Amino acid sequence: MGSPSEKRRSTDALYPHRAMIVCAAGGRRTEADALAQGLGVPLVGELPDEPGSLALVLTDERLQVQLTGPGAPGPVYAEFVTGATARRGREAARADEGLLRAAGARHGQTPDVIDATGGLGRDAWLLAALGCRVTLVERHPAVAALLADGLKRARDDETAAEIAARIELIEAEAVAVLGERTADTVIVDPMHPPRRKSAAVRKEMQVFRALVGADGDSDRLLPAAIAAARRRVAVKRPRGARPLPGPAPSGSIDGRSTRFDIYAGGAREA
Ligand SMILES: C[S@@+](CC[C@H](N)C(=O)[O-])C[C@H]1O[C@@H](n2cnc3c(N)ncnc32)[C@H](O)[C@@H]1O
User: Fold this and answer.
1) Domain tally, the chain
2) In this predicted model, what pLDDT tens digit does every residue of 63-82 receive, in sequence order?
3) Measured in angstroms, how far is the CA atom of residue 27 from the centroid of ligand 1?
C-alpha cells in the first residue's frame, strides 16, 4: 500500500474528473463503503446536480458510471444478460463477425484468448459465447469494478452463467500479465481517438472517455502481445487509422467501422 499522499496522487491521475461513489440502494451501504475504500474515492449520499463529476452509482440492480449535471448522457455499465452484447453472444455461432475471424475463432475452433484491453467486456463475451476461454485484463480499477459487477450478474443468471464461467477477470496492467501468460490469441483494443459515430455510441463514449481517458501508451502492448501469443494477435483499429507503431501486420480484416490488424504470435505452442 502507498502512503495517503501517494494514493491521492495516483487516484487523481486515474480520474480526470472529480470521482465519487453514490449509494442509491438502501441495502448496499456496506458494499458501497468497500468499493469507495478499494477505489480510493469518496462515498457520497446523492448524485450531485452540478456538472463535471463522474459518479459510480451502486443501484439495487447494478454498478454503473455516469457524468453528473443537466443533459449528461445516461449511465454506462457492463451488461451480459440482456441487451446487445447478450444478443450478439446468442448469435455468435451463426454470425460473420470480424472479431471471430480475427481471433481465429471460426469453423469449430475455440482458441484460448487473452483480451488485454477489457473495457466493458463485449468482445470477451462474444468469444466466450462461442466457447473460447478468455482471460480478461483491465487496468483501470473502476472499469474492472464495472466488469466484476456485470460478470457477477451473469454468473447469477441461468442462461448466461455457462458463458461467464469461461471468463477470468484480472485487474492489472496487461503488459505484466502478458509477461507471465501465453494464449493462442491475444486481442488488443485500446481507446481510439474521437471520431464521428452514432449519437448513442457517442454518448456512451463520452462517459467512458471521461473515466479512462486516452490509452496513449498502447504502443507498448503490441510487442508484449506478440511475445505472449502462440498463434496470433488481433489489434482493433478504426477503419482508415494507421496500424500501431511496430512490426507491420501480416494481414487485416475489415469490418463496417473497424479493422483488425493481424500479427503472427511469437510464443511457442504448448
Ligand atoms: C476501447 S476499450 C476496450 C473495449 C473492449 N474491447 C470491449 O469489447 O468492451 C479499452 C480498455 O482497455 C483498457 N486498457 C488500455 N490499455 C491497457 C493496458 N495496457 N492494460 C490493461 N488495460 C488496458 C482501458 O482502461 C479501457 O478500459
Assistant:
1) 2
2) 999 999 998 889 999 999 99
3) 32
At 168-210, the pLDDT tens digits run 999 999 999 999 999 999 999 998 766 655 565 677 788 888 8
| Ligand 1 center to 43 CA (angstroms) | 26
User: Are residues 176 and 244 located together in one domain of the fold?
Assistant: yes
Q: What average pLDDT is seen over the chain?
A: 90
Residue whose Cα lies nearest atom 3 of ligand 1: it is 119
**74 assigned to some structural domain:** no
96 CA from centroid of ligand 1 (Å): 23
206-247 pLDDT tens trace: 888 888 887 778 889 999 999 999 999 999 999 889 999 999
144 and 42 in a single domain? The answer is no
Please report the atom of ligand 1 found closest to the CA of residue 192: 1
Which structural domain range is residue 98 located in? 83-264
Alpha helices in the chain (DSSP H): 4-14, 29-39, 83-90, 98-103, 122-130, 141-155, 161-164, 174-178, 199-212, 221-228
Q: Are residues 209 and 99 in the same domain?
A: yes
pLDDT band at 124 (very low <50, low <70, confident <90, very high): very high
Do residues 45 and 97 both lie within one domain? no
Ligand 1 near 89 CB (within 6 A) = no
Q: What does the block give as the cell for 85?
A: 452484447
**Predicted local distance difference test score (pLDDT) of residue 87:** 93
Would you state the cell numbers that stand for residue 164, as one nine-digit string?
461467464
Give CA torsion, residues 194, 195, 200, 201, to 10 deg: -60
* CB distance 127 to 103 below 8 Å: yes
Pair (94, 62) in one structural domain: no
Q: Which atom of ligand 1 is nearest to the CA of 124?
A: 8
**Residue 122 Cα: closest atom of ligand 1:** 8
